[in-house]
Amino acid sequence: MPRKVPATVVTGFLGAGKTTLIRHMLANANGRRIALVINEFGDLGVDGEILRGCGIAGCTEDDIMELSNGCICCTVAEDFIPTMEKLLERATPPDHIVIETSGLALPQPLVRAFNWPGISTRVTVDGVVTVVDGKAVAEGRFAADERALAAQRAADETLDHDTPLAELFEDQLACADMIVVNKTDLLSPEEAEALAAELATKAREGVRVVRAAHGALPVEVLLGIGSAAETDMDARGEIHHHHHDDEEDHEHAHGHDEFESFVVERGEIADASAFARQVAEVIRTHDILRLKGFAAVAGKPMRLALQAVGPRVETYFDRPFAPGEARSARLVVIGEAGLDRAAIEAALRA
Ligand SMILES: Nc1nc2c(ncn2[C@@H]2O[C@H](COP(=O)(O)OP(=O)(O)OP(=O)(O)O)[C@@H](O)[C@H]2O)c(=O)[nH]1
């Protein structure tokens, strides 16, 4: 029987650095033929664009498949399985498949899908890599006040005070074979070490916790874990009380309705750094979790990529506009439900 194609699931909250880590992996693939399956929340295909724009030799358009139908863990049957079948049926199947889940996805339903009859004999989960935004966790963005929370729980065990963010974060940790504490360049070595130690206590026994800046890890560390995660899902169950008996419950339980996203378009901007400051202000005012996309700067032939995670905004010119391509901005905005869309649109277009 032919060997099963190994697949690595890269999970982690919005903006943790999944795409950055994958990009580094592709740039250092040493001849491995890696196919990517990408799923994004807030549909604009930014991650696919970034990875395609990377110009890495041997990484062709064909090797990147985008799932657009919402959150990967809720569209396993319609979207994910057929995509995997297509990949596996190629004349030369990839050496390795890497799946980037949306920042809001639970990895568990996706990993379980590897047991489906159509694919279970041909592919196996090599490992679940959970990328953590070390800076955001250190700033307490996933649990507003852990001590207060613990005190409340002690007072009333039946209360579930976890925020949707905290729940998702813990479920993503519970499924991991490897936890990457990313963005260590924004932490002191002591902070990074303390965080790694703390996260190890939230993971299953024996899970490796590694530290990284800009997702730069040797490919050999990330790939080849050989966990066959799909065969031991009981150990990786969601630790919260999600009901996975039917899809509707599941969707509800992991709170898609607690997050929302929309796209804002605008014309050319005058200046990249002034616009970055404007975006940072909008993010602060409206408590936006993630904002990313592309813009056109007056007089510049290159396209401006813009990436913001919480308060940190990054801009860079990624590629020239193609002839005839619209010189306008498209930005996807993601936050907890209840964003003031009209005000955000107005502020970003100002
Ligand atoms: N300072 C710093 N920035 C980082 C690091 N890793 C990623 N970033 C930045 O964080 C932002 C988000 O990175 P991505 O790789 O797009 O994160 P992601 O997890 O793929 O994001 P989503 O797909 O939206 O969930 C980008 O602006 C990156 O340049 C890091 O280690 N240090």
UniProtKB/TrEMBL annotation:
GO terms for cellular component: cytoplasm. GO terms for molecular function: hydrolase activity; nucleotide binding. SMART domains: CobW_C. Keywords: Chaperone, Hydrolase, Nucleotide-binding. Residues 259-350 form the CobW C-terminal domain. InterPro entries: CobW, CobW-likC_sf, CobW-like_C, CobW/HypB/UreG_nucleotide-bd, P-loop_NTPase, Zinc-reg_GTPase_activator. Pfam families: cobW, CobW_C. It catalyses: GTP + H2O = GDP + phosphate + H(+). Gene3D superfamilies: CobW-like, C-terminal domain (3.30.1220.10), P-loop containing nucleotide triphosphate hydrolases (3.40.50.300). The keyword Isomerase does not apply. One of its GO terms (biological process) is cobalamin biosynthetic process. Belongs to the SIMIBI class G3E GTPase family. ZNG1 subfamily. Zinc chaperone that directly transfers zinc cofactor to target proteins, thereby activating them. Zinc is transferred from the CXCC motif in the GTPase domain to the zinc binding site in target proteins in a process requiring GTP hydrolysis. This is Cobalamin biosynthesis protein CobW. It comes from Meinhardsimonia xiamenensis.
